[in-house]
Every structure is written in C-alpha cells, then in structure tokens.
C-alpha cells in the first residue's frame, strides 16, 4: 500500500477508478525526447501553468511550476536528474496547475476490517517552497457542506485504496471545488491540530490499530470544537529564503505554556542544530474556543518563546498573526508571495531576551564575561 500510494501516478489511477475528482494529469513520462514531447503536448492541450512532479516525490520536494513551453524544455532533464538524486527514481509526470488554491487535508483513521472515520479538515495553505509552515484546524472559508463533502471524499478515497491505520488525504481547493492530490501513508507533523479539536489521540490509536485491534470510535463519536493552529518553529532565516541555521548552538531556550498551549519538540539550551536532515526544532500548537481567542493565545505564546543562538521563524510568525488577511482567515498557497511585508521585521533584541541570555550564561558558567 505504501508503494502504491507513494507512487503518485499509481495513486491517481486508483482514485480515478473510484471516481475521486482530480486535476488533469499524465502517466509517467517517457525518458528522453519522447517524454519531453509528451509534456509539450500536455501543455498545449491544457494550457500553462502546469506542474512537473517527481512520481516518488513527497514533502514538497521534486515539484516545479512550469509557466511556458520554453521553461518546460529547460527544466525537464533537470527535474528527472533531481528526482533520481532525491528519491532514487527519475520518473516524473505532469498535472495541470491550480493557481492560488487552498491546500486542504483530512485526517483519516481506519482499521483492518474496513471501518474508516475522519477527524475533520486542516488548512495547510501557508507554505514556503511547497513545504508547510502553518497548519490550522478546521480549514477556513469552507461552508459546512463543503467541509462534509471533502471529508467524506477522503473516507471514500481511503476505502478505495484499501487503507488502514492513520493517514492523510490531501486536496487542492479552488472556487468551491476540490481535487485529490495525494494520500500520505503515515502520521503527519500537523496531526496535533486534529487532536486538539477532537480530543482523539491519533498516535495511541495508530499503535493500537497496528497491533490488530478494531477502531473503538465511530464517526458519530467525533465532535469538532474550537480552533487549533500549529506553527513549525524552525532554525531558519526567513529573510534569507528560509535558509537553515545548521551548526549553530541554542544559547537560551525559554518556552511558553498555559492552557491550550502544546509543545512537541526536543530543543534545549546547549543544543547544536544539526547540519543535515531537518531544521524543525519544536512544534507550537495552540487551541482556542474562538478564532480570535486562538490568535490572541498564539500571540502571547510567540512573544513568550525565546530561542537565542540560531535565527528562527518566531519573529516572522509574529508578523504573520498580526496581518489582517491572516486574522480574517483569508489565505491560499500564494500567501507568502503576495505578502512580502511579512519579512519586514526587526530581530528580537528586547531587554527581556537580553536578561534571559545573561541569566542563562551565569547559570552555565557561574558568571558572565562582563563581571568585574
């Protein structure tokens, strides 16, 4: 199942047979000039922009947006080489691009007997380089009817694939219509927001299902409440195209807390950021009964979150949550490109953080460099 759904072309075939709505796409393109001509023909038939994707891709990697035929010819060979290097498979395919969609996904859980339920929607539209930064549950700007339709379609897709255990069905949402994108056959980073609005422990449930136990909850047992937002606190420099801060040491680490605040991470004072793998330090997830309460709690948590040493996404997020469009719940996958003012912020040099740095140094060294 992981092979079938991890291969984007095979997954599309399964969904097409089940009648799941999808954007137009191709099978795996042939290697060499023959594949390039297939791609050119697709572009002429459906128009640009189109998405050139690695068949074995994931995590936002192996994706190129092609604006015109000339770009396709320039990028086709490079895309195959990158797919081979990243995934060990140089297969690529094409999809018609949906311009400025919302990225909506549905958490599903299923047992081996075919009982399948959903835990509502998540909005993962705020991204950089096709990789998620902020995740929100439930999704914004969908009517109750659209929420129900996309959730039930996710259940239908999971059943069509014979899926069991925890997983995520991802969609693009545009002008009231939604299109299947992929099924992630695993627990995802953003599962925390679904847990916060449902009270369901997805990790515990996943382990019990893997042990062969039946699903102990039914769809009618699931009641969505309030709002939850997860922000990925990454060791990155947002002003420098989110460049990772690998190799730097966390000199001060002070985390927020209180009702409705959840932290999932491993960072601590003295931790050195690895130069390989992932720049994620900790996930900040905040719950509130209303959207305004959630944003207020998120603002307090970010203001109380101090990480000194590497640059992080925290000051960028403080700009983001004060943006009128964010506060109104109006965002799509082009949000960062259309809100360049979010990158205009001062690095945090508050007196509170300076004091935190001084105290941390005294605790660590028994004094500080400026002591007489």
Summarize the structure.
With 372 residues, this protein is an alpha+beta fold. It folds into 3 domains: 24-96, ATP-grasp fold, A domain (Dna Ligase, domain 1), CATH 3.30.1490.20; 99-217, D-amino Acid Aminotransferase, Chain A, domain 1 (2-Layer Sandwich); 226-372, D-amino Acid Aminotransferase, Chain A, domain 1. It has helices at residues 2-6, 8-17, 32-46, 69-87, 144-160, 191-198, 202-210, 291-303, 314-321, 324-327, 335-338, 351-365; strands spanning 50-54, 63-66, 92-96, 102-110, 116-123, 127-128, 131-132, 134-137, 165-174, 177-184, 227-234, 236-237, 243-244, 252-254, 261-265, 280-288, 306-308.
Q: What string, H for helix and E for strand, traces the elements in order?
A: HHHEEHEEEEEEHEEHHEEEEEEHEHHHH
The CATH class of the largest domain, by name, is: Alpha Beta
Reported by name, the CATH topology of the largest domain is: D-amino Acid Aminotransferase, Chain A, domain 1
- How big is the Rg? 22 Å
Average of pLDDT: 91
Helix/strand/pairing category: alpha+beta
Intertermini distance = 66 Å
Give the number of DSSP strands.
17
Helix fraction bin:
25-40%
Detail the poorly predicted runs: none
How many separate helices?
A: 12
Please summarize the sheet with the most strands: 4 strands, antiparallel
Give the strand content: 15-25%
How does the overall form come out from the CA principal axes? globular
